[in-house]
Amino acid sequence: MTAGLLTAAYGLWVRPRMLNTCATREEIEGPFPGADIVPEGKRTPTMAITVEAPPSRVWPWLVQMGCDRAGWYSWDRLDNAGRPSATRLHPEWQSLQVGQRIAADPSGAHWFEVAALEPERFLGLRATFTLLGRPYPASGPRPPRFVDSLWAFQLKPLPQERTRLVVSGYSAQRPWLLTTLNGLLFWEPAHWIMQTRQFRNLQSRAEGSASPRGIGLTQWMAPHPSGFQPHHRAP
Fold first, then answer.
1. pLDDT confidence tier of residue 209, bands split at 50, 70 and 90
2. Cα 223 to the center of its chain, rounded Å
3. For position 21, what pLDDT does the model report?
4. HEC secondary structure over 14-41
5. 202 - beta bridge partners?
6. Contacts of 145 (CB under 8 A, 6+ apart)
7. Which residues, 6 or more positions from 194, have their beta carbon under 8 angstroms from its beta carbon?
8. Minimal CA–CA distance to 28: which of 187, 174, 233, 235?
């Protein structure tokens, strides 16, 4: 009985808010760039944050991301081998081009490929790998069991030199049941943990704040504007 209630509460209340943290209805349901990058891809959860700095100050922090570059500004012990993410902009990491590979882990065995790049507006990072975790070329044929996903950052200028940073993407995978269960049990909570931390640190760096304001539990669990309750579009 208790387990059933907890499961229902997670599925009906916690999970929808977790997957679409702080995103508006328009950001979740409206068009998002990159739909043509992942064949047969479905829209993934949408998370967003408002940064008190213009896109020109947010973009350089995004451009230099990567384990072989400035890190991911998230939990460094988990995704950067404990090496602290950069706290300043590095000129040597400010060049990026479509097709370039960015190390996704400290070993360099896994990577993101820059799939879309529009300075100060949009950055799309694509990852393609088998269910055993082995990368395969995005330009080649898909293996029988795979995950093909786009992790994308959209920057929207707001009045008073602010930026709305929206993170979403697209994903395709096979077999559907196995990858969906893996997402429910691991990838969805992991993404929320890492993405909210990244938001906090990006906000702090772009704003030049010594202590990030961040996204707290009360913020993401609070009722959404206009009474809208965010939801996830299942793959």
1. low
2. 22
3. 86
4. HHHHHHCCCCCHHHHHCCCCCCCCCCCC
5. none
6. 130, 131, 174, 175, 178
7. 72, 74, 75, 78, 79
8. 233
Structure confidence at residue 132 (pLDDT): 82
Assigned token pair, 130:
């088998």
CA distance to 22, 44, 125, 147, 178, per residue, from 27 (Å): 10, 12, 19, 24, 28
- Alpha helix (H) residue ranges in the chain: 2-9, 15-19, 25-29, 55-63, 76-79, 176-182, 188-207, 217-221
Angle (nearest 5°) at CA 141 between 136 and 146 = 55
Give 10's contacts (C-beta < 8 A, 6+ positions apart).
Answer: none
**Entry pTM:** 0.83
Judged by DSSP in three states, 90 sits in: coil
**Helix, strand, coil in percent for the chain, rounding step 5:** 35, 25, 45
Quickly state the pLDDT bin for 154 (edges 50, 70, 90).
very high
Give CA–CA dist 82/226, Å, rounded.
Answer: 41
Pick the most confident of 11-15, 24-28, 231-235: 24-28
**Pick from 112-116, 139-143, 174-178: least confident:** 174-178
Q: Is the dihedral of CA 27, 31, 37, 38 positive or negative?
A: positive
Instruction: Name 222's Cβ contacts closer than 8 Å, sequence gap at least 6.
Output: none
What local confidence, expressed as pLDDT, does residue 12 receive?
A: 45
Q: Rounded to 5 degrees, what angle do the CA atoms 149, 176, 21 make?
A: 50
Residue with tokens 């190390």: 103
To the nearest 10 degrees (0 to 180), the angle between helices 188-207 and 55-63 is 130
